[in-house]
Design a protein that fits this description.
Elements (H helix, E strand, L loop, with lengths): L1 E6 L3 H14 L3 E6 L2 H11 L3 E5 L7 H9 L9 E5 L4 H10 L2 E4 L4 H12 L8
């Protein structure tokens, strides 16, 4: 089972990604978090294999959340995909440089699944 944590302040995005990924791939479990702080508070409890992280969130931004995740030895190599509504060149370049991938909203769930497979491999892929 691949555990994917998605961190986004938009309930619609959380719902769409969770239901979409779990519907197309039974080997994926999606854990949803509404904020950067909630993500950090639950990393050890949920033990995600990959994190999908929104950049623009109230309180702790995705950039700050990313830095905090990378500062924790246990999580410093966990793949992170930025998922954001920001489409400016600066955000894209920084996102491509820092994270394993950068996706702009709205995004097709199949594209997210392909990125997950690329980063984590196809182990236990039951959707085919």
């Amino acid at each position: 089972m691949k555990k994917i944590m998605i961190v986004d302040d938009e309930p619609g995005v959380l719902y769409t990604v969770k239901t979409g990924l779990e519907a197309i791939d039974e080997s994926i479990e999606v854990i949803t978090m509404k904020s950067g702080q909630e993500c950090l508070d639950n990393l050890d409890k949920t033990n995600p294999d990959l994190i999908i992280l929104d950049l623009m969130m109230p309180g702790m931004s995705g950039w700050v959340t990313y830095d905090n995740i990378r500062d924790i030895k246990k999580w410093e190599k966990t793949p992170i995909i930025f998922l954001t509504a920001r489409t400016d060149d600066l955000a894209k370049k920084a996102g491509d440089f820092l994270a394993e991938d950068y996706l702009e909203k709205p995004v097709d769930v199949m594209v997210i699944k392909e990125k997950i497979e690329r980063l984590l491999g196809n182990k236990n892929d039951q959707a085919d």
